[in-house]
Design goal:
The chain contains eleven helices and nine strands. The chain starts with 10 loop residues before the first strand and ends with a strand.
Amino acid sequence: MLTYAKSIDGHIAPENLVRVMVVRAILIVALVLGLWIGTSKLGMSLPLEPILLAIGALVALNIGRMLRMNAISQTELFIELVLDSVALTLVLYFSGGISNPFVSFYLVQLTLGAMLLPGRLSWSLASLLLCLYTILIFFYQPMVHRHDSGLGNNPAFNLHTVGAWLTFALSLLIVATFLVRMVSSLRQYERKLAFAREEHFRTERIVALGALAASTAHELATPVSTIAVIAKELERRLDASPQLREMLQSLRTQVDVCKSSLTSLTHNSGAARLESCSLRAANDFIAETLTEWRAMRPDAKFIFSLESTAPPPSIIDEPTLKNALISVLNNAADVSPESIKVRTNWNNQQLSIEVIDAGPGLSDQNLRRAGNTPFSTKSSRQGLGIGLYLARATLERFGGSLTLANSQQGGLRATILLPTN
């Protein structure tokens, strides 16, 4: 597929150079074939030395480019197209001028320049081709051939007309092929650009959320510490019933979880880079995450199953990955705290974690939104709708993914994939 962008930092991509070489090779073959038919089959008298010298220059230019297939500047490509045009003009000069059917190849050169060169160089090439065509109108060596020879025995057979038609058809085929590929490449480029803009917008939102979260964590540190002190003091002073004492202990546990999360958020903020992260056994990572989550959500009941008999692989040990898994678990616990299934599987390439709830699932429209934008089907008191959004962004940052789908048995199935080793 033809690369749509004309250049990257002022250079022509190697794949586009290949297509220039292909067009040049087609021109060389066509010229050699036409020269052979004209001289050996039709008895034309043509000056072979200058024509072969011009064709040889095209061959040398193509071989030189083949040996140096790195990206070149737009100016270098412009010079190569100029050399192609001059060599073609020399062949046309010694073989009939504009009456030579191969004059149609000027359009192919113009098409290549328009697609691969910036406006200034494209117009310069177009002006040069117009000048060369004009020169050939007045200055050329006529072709001498027999009109009654060649294909068929019809005396009215016009060799020039047939040759012009064949050359025009070949030029049309080359131009049409390149234009179709250019349009297809343009559409692909637009799709990639739209995706890049969406990713950039999402990244900006995540950065803003991260800055807001760090600021909020700093502001909440003091009131959370105050609540912890008061809860401990109440538990010590009150001669409470066992039920009330248990409630106070649960309150202290939840406050400790909040303090730990705030401390981690303040000091880490998800700033770890992939190359600086350590590795950890997948089973230890999952066990520790589920233990922490159970302390956060003691009311949630889940069934854990391991579907792999292979030794546990290693995965990235990064706090934000743990938070991503906890966000997915919390989402399931919010809709069906009494019935959650956690299925784990792994191999040498990836770790798979499925979290399946028994809730109503999501509509197709909400499935497309969930995880891609801050979105929630719950009330504002139950959440802000950014858990799955941040979870997916975190997983993708470390080469993983989060996929949401309605389970055939009912409920929502969230599949987490993480690279291993």
